[in-house]
Structures are given as structure tokens and as C-alpha cells.
């Protein structure tokens, strides 16, 4: 058997195993822009309760028009790396807008927040340093730290989720480290919970540690004007480093950024491999994301609508007899118990015209399988009530309520 066939054979076997274990992912295809309701192949019109289109900007006419203008003005892209071929002025404008939004001195864009998270620790840390990560941080942070460890030989560690005492102990034990960095998600995407930034900041300050917050689910979502988790806690200007995505609330196309001091962004421009060896964001994406930021800044009422939608939906689910996790974010996980129950509920909800993803073990702990609802400012009260009626029917059918 040729080497290629051995690989092919193994992959096919593993795919069969995924199917047998009930963890094989089937992609659903939609034929209309991301919005409160979309057209899904094989299902017709469905209400989407599982996108990160928090502010409803993915199909906003001005965001689309800005993307088209970006394409016409700058063409498809730089056709190389920024420092070699030139950086479009739209990238500079976007980075100024990102820094203004999150309240830092500077920002540097990447083709995704995954790339930003991978770039940061591997570029700035050294063998003299330590990075400590919350146990429930996003996969891109985990992989970014793994890369940093293998490249720089920095020390790494994990502190128990949200456990300030554990973090405190681990920082105290690392007094020999030159730079100590702590990283947390602003909003934890599986739980919909918010990191205790005031507490984290206090512990970090006491140990002289740098605090890095990945606010991908907080940007455009939390705080009165949507500046993020730090605005929620009245801490704008106090977080050392923020990474975030342009692929969720801010238009939903792609892209991410690191925001912090001018020196940090300059250093990453000089040294970060995902800057130096890959193209910049396409101009159309940069232009539409920038317009999305301007729409957010001009219409903070979108954030208020999102908050209100989340509050209403959570309360109504409880009234129906479900057990959504409590919280202040538009991520509303409804705990259903066993994995099979979550997957079945998700399938039945889709048949009822509501698209909401089910997550089971090993993504979440055994017995805590869930469907995760994500609300948007684009949802009308009618959308929410229709979705709630579907939840009621499915919940009764499965004996969940
Ligand atoms: C917390 C967090 N960080 C980073 C990312 C990656 O963002 P992007 O899609 O821009 O790579 C995500 C996306 O799922 C996320 O939830």
C-alpha cells in the first residue's frame, strides 16, 4: 500500500469513528447574508440563534457598501506582505479605529484574531518570562502559548477558571520571572460568563504582571457603548493588551487585532511572523470592518437592543421551564444534560425553523450538554417569540420541561 493510501485509510477510519460516536459535524449551507433569519439549504427560512453577528452588522447596507468601495479603491489586495509591498491607507485607518474603540494607544491588524493570538506571546516573550492562562481560554490562546513555549522556551501555566487565589499563588511562585503575563478571555464563549477583570487587574498589579484580555465576544457587546468587557467594568485605558476579532460583532467577515501601547504594536510589526510572512487583510474586509466600527460608535442603541434581547430571551426560557446559565451576555447556554439530548434538541429545533447548535462531551463536561443560544440586536421581538415557541414545543416533546 502506498504511503498516501495509508494516510487516506486512517482518515476514513477516523471519520467513520466520528460518525459512530455521534461527533461528526455536518455543515449546513445558507444562501443569504447572515441576519436574524437566513435561508438554509434543505430547511428554507430559519431563525439563527447561533451566529456571532451580535450587532446585526453583517448585512448592514453601509458595511456592504464600504466593502465594495474598498475593493474598487484598492483592488483585491496587496499581493504580498505589508512591509514588502506597502500597506494600504485603509489598514492604517482601520487600526486607528480599533485603537479608538477599545481605548488603547495603538492597534495592529491581523487576518484573524486566531493569528493575533498566535503572534503575540511567541513574539514578545523570552525564556526569562512566564505566561499564565485561564483554564477555559479559547483554543487560539492555548495554541499561541504552545507555540510561544516551543519557540521561546518561556515558562507557561494554567490557573483554574476564574480562580484569583490560584492565579495569585502561581504568580507569587514565579517572582524570578522577568515578564509575567496573564491572559483571559473577556467573555467565555461556552459559558457566556464574564471574566472578573477588576479582580484580575488587582492581582496582576500586585505581582507586576501584564494583563492580556482576548475580548472577541466582548467587543461590540459589553459596556454601555460596546467598547468591551473593560467598559462593562469601567476599566477603559487600564488593560495592558487587548486582542479581538473583526469576525463577530464588527461586521463578521474576518480579521483581528492586537491593541496596546505603540511600542507593542511597533514591535509586533517588526517581529511577529504572522505579520512578516503573510498578506494583510483584504482591503474590502478592512473597509467593511472600519465602517462597522463607525456604525457602532454612531449607534450605541444597537448595544442596548442586544442587551435587552438577551435579557428577554433568558427570562422567557426560564418561564418555559428551561435552565439557562445566568449571566449578562448574549451567549445563553441552556443545559440539557446528556449529549444525545442536546443534539436531538438541536435537530428538532432546526425542523421547527430555529438554528441553534448543540454541544456535548468532550467540548463541555459530561452531563452538562447544552444548546448555546446567541442573541443579536438584529432579532425582533417576533423572531424571539417564534424561537421561544419552538423551544417550548421541542422541550415538551423531549420531556425537558
Ligand atoms: C475568544 C476567541 N478568541 C479568538 C477567536 C478567533 O477569532 P477569529 O475568527 O478572528 O480568528 C474566537 C473565535 O471563535 C474566539 O471566540
Write a compact overview of the structure shown.
The chain is 45% helix and 17% strand. It starts with a helix and ends with a helix. It has 401 residues and is α/β, with parallel strands linked by helices.
Show the helix and strand layout.
Elements: H1 3-21, E1 37-40, E2 44-48, H2 61-74, H3 82-85, H4 89-102, E3 106-110, H5 113-124, E4 130-134, H6 139-152, E5 155-159, H7 164-172, E6 180-185, E7 187-188, E8 193-194, H8 197-207, E9 210-214, H9 229-232, E10 241-245, E11 256-260, H10 262-271, H11 273-276, H12 283-298, H13 301-320, E12 331-337, H14 339-351, E13 354-355, E14 357-359, E15 369-374, H15 381-397
Parallel strand pairs: 2-13, 4-5, 4-6, 6-9, 9-10
Antiparallel strand pairs: 1-2, 3-11, 7-8, 10-11, 12-15, 14-15
Helix pairs in contact: 2-12, 4-12, 5-6, 5-10, 7-8, 13-15
The protein binds pyridoxal-5'-phosphate.
Pyridoxal-5'-phosphate binds at residues 112-114, 117, 138, 140, 185, 189, 214, 216-217, 245, 247, 256.
SS-based structural class?
alpha/beta
Assigned CATH class of the largest domain: Alpha Beta
- H and E string: HEEHHHEHEHEHEEEHEHEEHHHHEHEEEH
CATH architecture of the largest domain: 3-Layer(aba) Sandwich
| Overall pLDDT metric | 96
Bound molecules: pyridoxal-5'-phosphate
Rg, alpha carbons? 22 Å
Fold-level CATH name of the largest domain:
Aspartate Aminotransferase, domain 2
The shape is globular
Number of domains: 2
Strand content: 15-25%
- Count of separate DSSP helical elements: 15
Corresponding CATH superfamily of the largest domain: Type I PLP-dependent aspartate aminotransferase-like (Major domain)
Total number of strands: 15
- Biggest sheet: strand arrangement: 3-11-10-9-6-4-5
- Sketch the major β-sheet: 7 strands, mixed
Estimate percent helicity. 40-55%
Amino acid at each position: 500500500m502506498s504511503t498516501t493510501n495509508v494516510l487516506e485509510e486512517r482518515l476514513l477510519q477516523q471519520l467513520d469513528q466520528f460518525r459512530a460516536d455521534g461527533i461528526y459535524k455536518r455543515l449546513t449551507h445558507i444562501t443569504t447574508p447572515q441576519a436574524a433569519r437566513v435561508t438554509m439549504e434543505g430547511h428554507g427560512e430559519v431563525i439563527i440563534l447561533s451566529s456571532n453577528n451580535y450587532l446585526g452588522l453583517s448585512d448592514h447596507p453601509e458595511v456592504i457598501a464600504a466593502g465594495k468601495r474598498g475593493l474598487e479603491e484598492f483592488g483585491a489586495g496587496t499581493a504580498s506582505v505589508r512591509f514588502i509591498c506597502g500597506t494600504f491607507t485603509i489598514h492604517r485607518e482601520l487600526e486607528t479605529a480599533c485603537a479608538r474603540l477599545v481605548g488603547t494607544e495603538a492597534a495592529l491588524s491581523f487576518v484573524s484574531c486566531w493569528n493575533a493570538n498566535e503572534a503575540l506571546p511567541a513574539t514578545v516573550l523570552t525564556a526569562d518570562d512566564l505566561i499564565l492562562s485561564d483554564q477555559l481560554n479559547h483554543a487560539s490562546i492555548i495554541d499561541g502559548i504552545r507555540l510561544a513555549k516551543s519557540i521561546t522556551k518561556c515558562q507557561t501555566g494554567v490557573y483554574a477558571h476564574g480562580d484569583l487565589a490560584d492565579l495569585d499563588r502561581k504568580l507569587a511562585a514565579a517572582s524570578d520571572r522577568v515578564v509575567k503575563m496573564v491572559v483571559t478571555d473577556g467573555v467565555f464563549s461556552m459559558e457566556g460568563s464574564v471574566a472578573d477583570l477588576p479582580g484580575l487587574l488587582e492581582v496582576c498589579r500586585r505581582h507586576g504582571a501584564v494583563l492580556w484580555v482576548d475580548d472577541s465576544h466582548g467587543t461590540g457587546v459589553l459596556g454601555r457603548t460596546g467598547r468591551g468587557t473593560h467598559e462593562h467594568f469601567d476599566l477603559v485605558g487600564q488593560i495592558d493588551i487587548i486582542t479581538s476579532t473583526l469576525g463577530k460583532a464588527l461586521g463578521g467577515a474576518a480579521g483581528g487585532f492586537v491593541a496596546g501601547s505603540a511600542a507593542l504594536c511597533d514591535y509586533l510589526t517588526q517581529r511577529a511572523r504572522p505579520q512578516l510572512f503573510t498578506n494583510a487583510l483584504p482591503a474590502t474586509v478592512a473597509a467593511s470592518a472600519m465602517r462597522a466600527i463607525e456604525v457602532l460608535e454612531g449607534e450605541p442603541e444597537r448595544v442596548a437592543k442586544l442587551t435587552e434581547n438577551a435579557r428577554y430571551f433568558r427570562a422567557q426560557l426560564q418561564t418555559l421551564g428551561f435552565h439557562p446559565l445566568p449571566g449578562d451576555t448574549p451567549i445563553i447556554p441552556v443545559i440539557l444534560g446528556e449529549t444525545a439530548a442536546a443534539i436531538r434538541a438541536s435537530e428538532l429545533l432546526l425542523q421547527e425553523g430555529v438554528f441553534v447548535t448543540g454541544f456535548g462531551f468532550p467540548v463541555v463536561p459530561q452531563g452538562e450538554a447544552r444548546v448555546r443560544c446567541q442573541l443579536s440586536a438584529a432579532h425582533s421581538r417576533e423572531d424571539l417569540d417564534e424561537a421561544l415557541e419552538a423551544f417550548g414545543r421541542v422541550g415538551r416533546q423531549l420531556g425537558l420541561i
